[in-house]
Every structure is written in C-alpha cells, then in structure tokens.
Request: fold
Amino acid sequence: MAENGTVRFEAGGAAYALRFDINAFCRIEAELGIESVAEFQAVLKEKLSFTKLRKLFACGLSPAATDEEAGTIMSELGIDRASEMLTQCIQASFPSGEGKAGNAGAAKAKGQSH
Reply:
C-alpha cells in the first residue's frame, strides 16, 4: 500500500521506492509537457500508452532513473502490478482525491503499444 505517495518494493533483487511528490510531478510536467494539475488529471484519464506509463514510473523512481531502467523494473514486476503501484502512489499523493483517476488509465493500456 502506498503511504504519502510512496510505495517500497523489490525487483530483480534490488530495493526501490516509487514516490510521487512535488519533485516527481515537476519531472512529469517537464517530460510530458504538462502545464497544469488539470492537464495532468486529463492525462491520467487517457488510455495511456506503454511509453507514458514507463515515463510516469521513471519519474516516480528518481531523478536519475532512465526510461529503460523503469521499463526493466516494470517488466520484472509485471504490467498489472506496476500499473497498480502507479495508481496507488498517485492517489496517495493527493489526499484530497484530486489525483484520483480510477486506475490512472493504466489498465486500459494493456494490449496497447505506442
């Protein structure tokens, strides 16, 4: 379960933390060209591509995480678990429910490629 926008997990024998704080949201804005909270919420409601899912995951891992590293970790976890973790973390980072987007569009991306 995500606490305060963070979930700790293991993948490939290493420990990680997926965290969505202000810094992670700023990385997301910069990487995806998002200019407002409303626009971010709209992105979460989209049928997300694997590319956007991976980018969100990378932004939540750390400033140094590459898209490739995030993709490798997501593959290790499985798309369903990685998507669920994204959803939990993002929802937990908006305690008022502002970031709530159901499944963050993640489950809808299953079977879609970019």
